[in-house]
Amino acid sequence: MQESAHTAELGFGLAAVGRPAYITSDREHDLGSPTARSVAAMESRVHALLDTAWALGIRYLDAARSYGRAEEFLGSWLAAHPDRRASLTIGSKWGYEYVGGWDPGAALHERKEHTLAMLDRQWPQTLAALGGPPDFYLIHSVTPESPALTDAALLERIGEIRDTGVRVGISTSGPRQAEVVDRARNEHGDLFSVVQSTWNLFEPSAGPALARAHDAGWTVVLKEVLANGWLTDAHAPTVVRDAARTASLTVDEYAFAAARRQEWVDLVLSGAATDDQLRRGAERSDPADPLPMPVFAIGPETYWQRRSALDWA
Questions:
Q1: Which of 40, 106, 191, 212 sits at 20 to 30 Å (Cα–Cα) from 286?
Q2: 9 dihedral zone (left: phi>0; alpha: psi -120 to 50; beta)
Q3: How far apart are CA 270 and CA 13, in angstroms?
Q4: Quick one: the chain helix, strand, coil %, rounded to 5?
Q5: 3-state secondary structure of 119
Q6: Are 172 and 142 in contact (CB under 8 A)?
Q7: First-to-last CA distance in the chain?
Q8: pLDDT tens for residues 128-186?
Q9: Could you give the angle at which helices 251-260 and 238-246 cross, rounded to 10 degrees?
Q10: Which pTM value belongs to this model?
Q11: 214: part of which helix (H) or strand (E)?
């Protein structure tokens, strides 16, 4: 049993709704057929979801240059509600670009490049799309192979952005997330102060490193807590469904609750594509009773191999 009074705040991430294709499961059920996912239709969906998030008290919103038109959709919503901006924390990321051409069947949807040239190209794009600077600006999906933590000119430019009042940091992915988080904290703790990492019941390996970052004063944001749809009633293995049932929760509610109960977490992202998913994650992921927490981890190498095999749909 895990007993804790701590419950991290919930944020809303636009990875699944800023572009017509993504690697989450059941997208045709959630969004309709790919032919129904026009730019206008997806913008309308994002605006409705943002209205719901606001009504639910969600005040952290997350986007990225690679999330299709997510920054633009968020920016147009902010422009329609200028009174809300001061109450929100906006996060975005650079280092990937969307190259799918709004084609769900594109052979390639995003391209990674952690260079000074990419930052200098994408930072003005983010400012224009959002109508101003985000509060957090992260290097997208830093891995041990990324040059982002060793490029002196790049780090100097990130420092210049930091000096304008924007908090800078990293997001991570892959089986060596913990190594990257510790390295960024040890080598660049005077520069970075935010980290966004994948953490869920199947892949909690970054937890100790994220706890160390939290102890150092960093803001810790968790993503992919539903494992791209694997941690839902429709797809979770029996052992997870049984644990959720014991807690009188659905699997997705249980997965969110487990993430929000971690003492070192500040924000947990919902990647909802529908109003019901967003409401359920916000309203049912803070149970009053202690949460049963068996060990579900499958090992980071196995988890990330499975994730890399997911289809864009």
A1: 212
A2: beta
A3: 6
A4: 40, 15, 40
A5: helix
A6: yes
A7: 37
A8: 999 999 999 999 999 999 999 999 999 999 999 999 999 999 999 999 999 999 999 99
A9: 70
A10: 0.96
A11: helix 207-215
